[in-house]
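Internal tracking record. Fields below are filled automatically when a chain is submitted to the structure queue. Please do not edit lines marked as system-generated. If the sequence contains nonstandard residues, flag them in the REMARKS field before resubmitting.
Queue: standard
Priority: normal
Entity type: single polypeptide chain
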Amino acid sequence: MKQNTKRSPLSQKLRKALSPILCLLAVIGLFTYLAWVMGLANALNTIMNTAHDLLLNTVFYLMGICVITSAIGRLFVDFGVVTLLEKLLRPLMRPLFNLPGVASLGAAMTFLSDNPAIISLAKDPQFKHYFRKYEYISLTNFGTAFGMGLLVMVFMVGHGFITAPLVGLCGAFCGCIVSTRLMQRFILKQYPHYKEESADETVDEGLKIKDEGQNSNDSENSTTNVISPSSCVLHPSSQNSTFLRILNALLDGGKAGVEVGIAIIPGVLIISTLVMVLTFGAGADGYDGAAYQGTALLPWLAGKISFVFDWLFGLQDPHLVAFPITALGAVGAALGLIPSFMEQGWIDGNAIAVFTAIGMCWSGFLSTHTAMLDSIGYRQLTSKAILAHTIGGLAAAFAAHWLFVLVSMLM
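SYSTEM-GENERATED OUTPUT FOLLOWS
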C-alpha cells in the first residue's frame, strides 16, 4: 500500500524556483565563512591540498583494503564459508532480530560487501518467500547495520587495534537489534496488516508463511539454494580444479574491490575534506594554505554539549564528533579521518570501539536508504527507516562504549 506523495503544481513550481537560489546561497555562505576565518586564498589552497593528500595517502590505502577484503569475500562465497556462517547464525535471527533464519545470509553478504547486497538478495523469490511484509521491509535496516563491516574491521586492525574493533562489532550487533525491531514497530503501527501478509505477492492470501521451527529442513534446503555458489555473482564452475577456483575467486573479487575503491573516492575527497575543514584549526604558524587546516567549527559546537558525548560514548575530545557525522553519508570517508585523528593524539581504544560500532551500523545509510527502499517498492517508509537507523547507530555507539569500559575493567 503506497501513499500519495504528489505535490500540487504550485508547490512544485515554487520548489523548482527556490532550489537554485537556496543552493547558490548555501555555496556562497560556506565560502564566505571560510574566507572570513581563513582567507579566501588559504581556504582554497587548504581544500585542494587536503583532497590531494587524502587521495594519495588514504584513498589508495582504502582501495588496497577493498581489493583484499573483496577477494577474501569472494573466496568465502565460492568455497561455502558464507553458507557455514549462515547456518551458524541462523538460530540467533528470531530471538534477536525477529527475522527468519535465512536473514543471516543477508548479514554475511553485507558484512563482506556493502549495504545494497541485501537488496539484490531480497529480490530472490526463494529468499523473499520466508518473510512477512514487515520483516521484509526491515531488511533494509538489518543489512545496513553490517555494511562494509569487514573493511571497517580490517582498517582498524591495520592501525594496531585488536580488542577495540571486536568490542565495536558487538556494539554494531546491539545497534542492529534496536534499528531492526524499531523499524518493525514503526511499520506495524502504520500498516498492521503487514504482520500477516507474505512479502512474496505470488503466494495465495490463504496460505500463511511457515514458522521457523516447523519446517527447519525445508528452510535449510531453500537457504542452501539461495546461497549456493550458482546463485551468487561469482558463478564458479565446480569442474575447475581447486587451484583455478581459488585463482578465479581471488581475481574476480579483487576486480570488484577496485570498483568499490573507485566508488568511495568522491565520498572521501568531498565529504572528508569538507568535514576536516570544519574540524581542524589553524596551523602552528597560522593559516598558510596547508592541508588539514580549518575553522574548528564542529569541535566548537560539540564542545557546548561535550558532557553528552563523554558520558554516552566516552569521546574525550570534541573533534571526534566529526567521525559519526561523516559516517552518516559514507563510512569510507569517515575512515579517512582516522589517520589524522591519530596524528593529533585524539584516538584511544574506546574511540576505536565506538567508531567501529557506529561506522559499521550507520555505514553511510543516509546515501543508500532511499534507493534501497525504493528498489523494493516501499519508498514511503524511508523517513521511518532513517529515524530507526539513526537511533540504532547511537545505541551501537553507546553499547560499544560501555562494553569497552567493562572489558577494560576485566583485563
